[in-house]
């Protein structure tokens, strides 16, 4: 019988019955971990040196090969080998050079699919890159909003030391803070480059946040239409205002933004997230005219965004009905805060054979839509609540009366159009002013009908709602109407129709205001286009001048008049107004430039997830403890990185779709 040492060294002693065969020395490194022994005549097995587990090797003339032996080593299933690596890792750091000699065998001939499972081999060959690790941890903190101090928390320190002891020497609050600011500055250059390529003007929204330290924070976002006629937005600044109540706070923030980002001569409109005082708004108007002379003398200042207008109106409605709402909330609280109570409620609902599954939940009083949904669900289940005291002995309070339920239905009726209109801000990626012209007009019409109704309870609430709706309409109707005029399905016709319904006898005056404004604005764009010099002179430049003089002599209709006199397009739902202007920009070169800027005006400054909030958002205590520059860097970089990730994901998805289409 061969000895293990003889077999392992490739020198085999043969019995006289077997003809000696000269064998080459085994080259595979798997034999560093295995020996071969005869277990019975003609049958040999491979034994692991570490755990002494045996594997088939040969039986007669049939040889099993070494793949299964490699898997035993490479996949870490050998207990002795796993224990060896764990002990070594805990005592000293494995350098790339030593790791190479201690790494289990990996055959170069294996396919890439099989190599993906060689986690031990792959990780041992990765070279530690401290700069890359710092960049990644900064991106992690920025993307997810983690506190910078987390790098000094004992749990995190222990975790990092386990992974890579050398890396922790480079981590501290100050170093991470510096890296975050550096990341912000690098991403800022990409945003600057993006804005430089935009052909049109920019519209700003100001979202005001409060804090417990009485400091204010102004979030400034610019909205624009890119060269492909797609509406875009970028968060530009998060500016701390030590005296947020002052009349200069917002104008100073806008002036800082305009100067920092080079927006002089490119600003078109400003929209506030929350109502600003008249002096505060007047201080902003001159900023719209910096190197931008004559653009309606700074009239494109929208004193309040539509989301905040609807939230303010909804808050008034809820305040009027707070007594009955409290009764409903207490009933819902009784059901939802006890499993036994909810079981009795469901049993009673099934006993009454109410159709469908009703969703009942407590409201969050900072978001008015949750209160509306609670009232709607409770109203649909009023029969259950009315009988609940008969089956639930724990239900001690008197159920709502018929009059209470009547008031609840009234509240739901008044809140429904507001809820549907505000929901458009969430369901639509970039809701246009055209969309909200319809929503505001419809809301105002509904409120006018409610005021003239016979129910004094409804009329009283509707009157309060209409006052705020009228205020928003007076401040924003010009901008909303201009956007409607730029829609070839409506033009001035919808303005004339809707104003006659809203203003009655004063409709003519308000229609003329829109008509004069749109013509004045177009004249300013014509004047600006005349100042733009052609990029290069060619042999046809004189011909262009000749045509311009000829048209002026014949007093031809302007692009605007020609556009307004053309037949309206069919009113279809799936209509992309920006795509229409993209296709017709050669026909209306100056008017399309004006349309691009008007249609970029945002109707809301509220963030996507905060459309229904009734109070200003509040900066958390941790961020208010940081330097203002660091807060701005963290928040802006977070938004920019998210946009970059989304763009990369979209590119990958599009590339995949193209490949699938080609195949």
Automatic annotation (TrEMBL):
Spell out the SUPFAM superfamilies in the cross-references.
Answer: beta-beta-alpha zinc fingers, Ribonuclease H-like
Q: Where are the residues of the annotated region Disordered? A: 83-116
Sorted UniProt keywords: DNA-binding, Metal-binding, Nucleus, Transcription, Transcription regulation, Zinc, Zinc-finger
Indicate, by first and last residue, each region the UniProt record lists as having compositional bias (Polar residues): 88-104
Q: Which Pfam families match?
A: Dimer_Tnp_hAT, hAT-like_RNase-H
A cellular-component GO term for this protein: nucleus
Q: Quote one Gene Ontology molecular function term.
A: protein dimerization activity
Q: Which residues form a coiled coil?
A: none
Biological processes, Gene Ontology terms: post-embryonic development
Q: Does the keyword GTP-binding apply?
A: no
Q: Which domain of life is it from?
A: Eukaryota
Q: Where is the BED-type domain?
A: 25-90
Transmembrane regions listed in the UniProt entry: none
Cellular location of this protein?
A: Nucleus
- How does this polypeptide assemble, per the annotation? Homodimer.
* Entry protein name: BED-type domain-containing protein
- Protein source organism: Brassica campestris
């Amino acid at each position: 019988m061969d000895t293990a040492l003889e077999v392992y060294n490739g020198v085999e002693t043969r019995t006289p019955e077997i003809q000696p065969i000269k064998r080459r020395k085994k080259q595979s490194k798997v034999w560093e971990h295995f020996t071969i022994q005869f277990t019975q005549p003609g049958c040999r097995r491979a034994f692991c040196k570490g755990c002494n587990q045996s594997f088939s090797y040969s039986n007669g003339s049939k040889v099993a090969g070494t793949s299964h032996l490699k898997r035993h080593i490479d996949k870490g299933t050998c207990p002795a080998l796993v224990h060896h690596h764990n002990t070594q890792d805990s005592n000293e750091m494995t350098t790339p050079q030593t790791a190479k000699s201690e790494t289990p065998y990996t055959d170069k001939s294996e396919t890439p699919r099989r190599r993906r499972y060689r986690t031990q081999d792959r990780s041992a060959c990765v070279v530690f890159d401290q700069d890359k690790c710092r960049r990644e941890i900064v991106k992690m903190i920025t993307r997810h909003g983690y506190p910078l101090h987390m790098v000094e928390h004992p749990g995190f320190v222990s975790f990092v030391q386990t992974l890579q002891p050398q890396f922790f020497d480079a981590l501290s609050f100050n170093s991470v803070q510096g890296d975050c600011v550096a990341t912000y500055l690098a991403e800022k250059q990409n945003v600057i480059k993006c804005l430089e390529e935009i052909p049109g003007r920019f519209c700003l929204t100001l979202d005001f946040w409060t804090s417990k330290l009485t400091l204010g924070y102004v979030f400034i976002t610019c909205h624009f239409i890119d060269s492909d006629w797609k509406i875009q937005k970028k968060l530009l600044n998060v500016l701390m205002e030590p005296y947020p109540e002052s009349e200069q706070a917002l104008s100073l923030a806008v002036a800082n933004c305009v100067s920092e980002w080079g927006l002089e001569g490119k600003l078109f409109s400003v929209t506030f997230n929350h109502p600003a005082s008249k002096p505060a708004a007047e201080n902003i108007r001159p900023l719209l005219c910096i190197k931008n002379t004559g653009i309606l003398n700074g009239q494109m200042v929208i004193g309040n965004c539509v989301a905040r207008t609807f939230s303010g109106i909804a808050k008034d409605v809820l305040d009027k009905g707070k007594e009955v709402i409290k009764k409903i909330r207490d009933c819902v609280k009784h059901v939802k805060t006890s499993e036994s109570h909810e079981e009795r409620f469901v049993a009673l609902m099934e006993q009454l054979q109410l159709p469908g599954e009703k969703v009942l939940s407590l409201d969050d009083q900072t978001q008015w839509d949750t209160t509306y949904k609670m009232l709607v669900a409770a109203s649909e289940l009023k029969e259950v609540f009315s009988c609940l005291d008969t089956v639930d002995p724990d239900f001690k309070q008197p159920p709502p009366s018929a009059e209470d339920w009547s008031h609840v239905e009234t509240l739901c009726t008044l809140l429904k159009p507001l809820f549907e209109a505000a929901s458009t801000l969430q369901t639509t990626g970039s809701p246009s002013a055209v969309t909200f012209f319809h929503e505001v007009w419809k809301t105002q019409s509904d409120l006018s009908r409610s005021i003239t109704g016979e129910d004094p309870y409804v009329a009283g609430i509707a009157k309060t709602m209409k006052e705020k709706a009228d205020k928003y309409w007076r401040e924003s109707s010009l901008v909303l109407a201009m956007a409607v005029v730029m829609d070839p399905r409506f033009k001035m016709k919808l303005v004339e129709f809707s104003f006659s319904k809203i203003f009655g006898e004063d409709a003519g005056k308000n229609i003329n205001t829109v008509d004069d404004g749109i013509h004045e604005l177009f004249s300013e764009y014509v004047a600006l286009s005349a100042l733009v010099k052609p990029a290069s002179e060619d042999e046809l430049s004189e011909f262009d001048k000749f045509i311009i003089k000829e048209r002026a002599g014949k007093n031809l209709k302007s692009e605007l008049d020609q556009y307004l006199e053309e037949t309206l397009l069919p009113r279809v739902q799936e209509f992309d107004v920006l795509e229409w202007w993209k296709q017709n920009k050669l026909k209306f070169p100056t008017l399309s430039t004006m349309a691009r800027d008007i249609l970029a005006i945002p109707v809301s400054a509220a963030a996507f997830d905060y459309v229904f909030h009734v109070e200003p958002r509040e900066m958390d205590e941790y961020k208010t403890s940081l330097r203002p520059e660091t807060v701005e860097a963290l928040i802006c970089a977070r938004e920019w990185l998210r946009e970059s990730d989304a763009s990369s994901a979209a590119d990958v998805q599009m590339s995949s779709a193209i490949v699938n289409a080609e195949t």
